[in-house]
Amino acid sequence: MTHLFGVLSTGTSALLTQQRAINLTGNNIANVNTPGYSRQRIRLETATPVGTAAGLMSFGVVSRGIERVYDRYLGIQINAEASRSGRWEAQQAALERTEALLDESGGGGIAAALGGFFGSWQDLVLKPGGEVERTVAVAASARLAEAVRSRYADLERMRRELDADLESAIEQVNRLALQVSELNRQIARVELGGETANDYRDRRDWVLKELAGLIDIQTSEAADGQVSVSVSGGRPLVESGNTWALRVEPGADGHGRIFWPDLDGALTDITASVRGGRVGGVLAVRDERLVAYRERIDEIARGLLAEVNAVHAAGFGLEGTTGTDLFVGSGAADLRLNPEVAEHPGLLAASASAEGIPGNAGNALRLLSLRDTPLLRGGTATFEEAAQGLVSLIGFDVQQARAQAQHTSDMLGFLENHREAVSGVSLDEEMVNLIRYQAAYQAAAKLVSLADEMLDALMTMVR
Description:
The structure is a single chain. By secondary structure, the protein is an alpha+beta fold. It has two domains: about 1-70 and about 425-460, no CATH class; about 70-425, no CATH class. Helices cover about 60% and strands about 10% of the residues. It has ten helices and 13 strands. A four-stranded antiparallel sheet has the order 5-6-7-8, with helices on one face. A three-stranded antiparallel sheet has the order 9-10-11, with helices on one face. A two-stranded antiparallel sheet has the order 1-4. A hairpin with a 2-residue loop joins β2 (about 50) and β3. α1 packs antiparallel against α10 (about 425-460). It starts with a helix and ends with a helix. The relative contact order is 0.15.
């Protein structure tokens, strides 16, 4: 009887175990298109052997748990590449918007305005007393000041838009950090009983990848399965079930800064140490590239205020006036045509001497000569070359960002494809497994049926 019930027990354990394997295979097939899902497999072992008259013998098979097919080191690589990819994609998007703002193709840029400005003074050289020529020169000067001022303001507006992008990204960082914290608690609760929280771990890995795409992070896993996440400088963002919510507050320049709160509520500015992810890309454009572009424009404005004003003030207008500045302001932010000149074009100092009015165009010629004089960029560039250089610089930055974004995207795609090869679900493989488990299940059912027939025959004999 013992051996007969052993056959029944063997068949029953085989039925139950193969059914679990079939269920697991079905779950793999169902999640073949689920992002971040890692293929699972059942771990089968022979049942604990027992002593029999024939010797030590095992009766059946048991499942010792469900394993997640996963390469942790590959996951770390994917997060690191996601951070780099997020940074360059953000830089590309922001720089392309900046390039559109400073586009010279429509003729409304600084370089075009400088060309119009010097062209009007060339006409004034030919006819210094002409009313039309003076009116055009005044209009061209006003247009130049407006082009410099508006482009400078456009870049500041762009920085404000990036402030909004920064706040949105930090909100997402805090939301994802809360998800990681909650998943930590669920994983610890499940695995406390000896189980493996495979689905929760998949979900957490997916959230960590999204988080890495937003900001550079470092992670470490504790013995209880909970992950600690820290941001630049090693400051914790998630630790066990706790989170630290990053904040965006205006800095001294009025633009958003990232602050990390400690346990006492004190805020630490970590803006300078954030380099990766979408946040790092936004900060790189806002605080480095746009600032550099604004400095280039401001250099042009200061050159106009210093060099053009110096030449213009040394000349004489139609009524013998001298010492008149053509432009007023302190830099690109407030550069404007002198209102007096705007109202009275006769104040344009085309003559080099009071005696030569109105036919003398010596001062207009001196001012026109500034067009070909390298006064900017440390004495290496003319006004127009400096303006064209700014456009070229932006174009170069955009090309670099595009190339880096493409490269990091390709690398991330390669790593994700490698992850799919390791952890992804292969329908062909799962179908083979399904056939194997189905055949084993049918054989186990045949074994149970056979044991039942043997028991019936034995009971008949007893009766």
